[in-house]
Structure prediction request, 480 residues.
Amino acid sequence: MEHDEAVAELELLAELGPRFPGSASHDRLVDHVAAHWADLGLTVREDVLRFDRWDLPSTPGGLTLTVGGRPVEISSVFPYSGTTGAEGVRGPLGLLERSTAPDGVAVVELRNRPVPFDALVRSWGQGAPWGTVTHPVLAATLSAERGLAKAKRAGARAVVFAWRGISAANARGQQVPFTLPYQDIPAVLVAGEAADTVLARAERGDPAELVLDAALTPDSAMRTVWTVVEGAERPDETVLVITHSDGTNVVEENGHLALVELARDVVARRPERSVVFVFTAGHLRIPAVIDGHGQATTRWLDDHRDWWAGGDGQRRAVAGLVAEHLGAVEYADDPATGGYGPTGRAEPELLYATTRELKAVASVEWRGAESGPPLVCAPTPVIQFGEGQPLTLARIPNISLVTAPQYLLSDHPGDYVDVPLLLRQVDSFRRLLRRLDTLPADKVGTVPAHTRIRKIAATARLTAALAATALRERRTRRSG
Prediction:
């Protein structure tokens, strides 16, 4: 892929803006990638997925918060939380832990707590390099659902999350958490001075009004598109190449650049194995496409076992590649200045390999953010971030990039991409695909089964690590 082509694709993403599932901008990107594949002479296949869509308010007056008659800045909206309609809801503010009255507006303190990332992501014999991290997605996912459920039980009409430990600039536009079904209670998040204001006014029970005029559209549609390049020597063996189409900004998700370039490469030099390219929809609306554990690609795997499962009359997936969040630069809050912005570094790559054999392949072929051998990670029995997880659950060995910058789920635009880094990562995926195309099947390795015992043990380790981190945080706060 040439530099100018990558820039043009990123400019298209910036022009489209957030590509929420089933939106017009989402459809445009899906059509764009399908057209690229069709131009290569490939047959584009399509799965139409029906779901009930929730959309952010479309007018400034459709999203407002006033407390004591004064406007309060909203940082972001809890996706698929609920809707107030144009008339809004009114009631006294009350701290959920103390005095939320029925029909009031509950205030929940949400802390951007440090999380022991080493308990979530293992490295292949390279120590414990991640330490603890604070990340908006992790904080919201671990805490917000419980707060919302408790507010509903208390009879609250709406919820305001006062987000601490994060700057207002970092919290702006964060579409988190994004993995929950429709909650039927409107909720917003405020940060910085707005969080201080809301917490103080909740102590006094001041009156509040929230307008969150989100639109609900039943029976909406989104599309997964996919295509196949037939193998010349072992067509019944497949390599799956995957990313998702919905996203919030130019990093989340730009993985289609890899899918288009890799399709171009295998059309130009026909592969030995069949290569299946999947541009899956629903990553930001997982509950709409699957019932149970997994991610958006789980739906494609369920619907198309004939392309990977290896039973009678079915092709067998030997391996998979998953490309997400290419070229991400690092942004961070600066506790010293209170500012938020780029650090001048690349975001540390979260590069998974699910077998030792693939770890060795990735160590040789990957040319990403750092000089020298990359840090290659392994999923735990509890979690693998990104769309590689469905492959792992199906025991398909895979290599997946799913770097997670602070702004990953923010729909606020920014200068988030290092183009030379992106090009190195795309080229790394090209190198990996060529290796996986010819690597003997018995040299790819075997993904261990996610047994109940392994999950329980991993969950216990994670719970202990979270508890220890929370205890250290409480001690630090008391001593401070």
Residues 452-480 form one domain. Residues 452-479 form the longest helix (28 residues). The first strand starts at residue 45 and ends at 55.
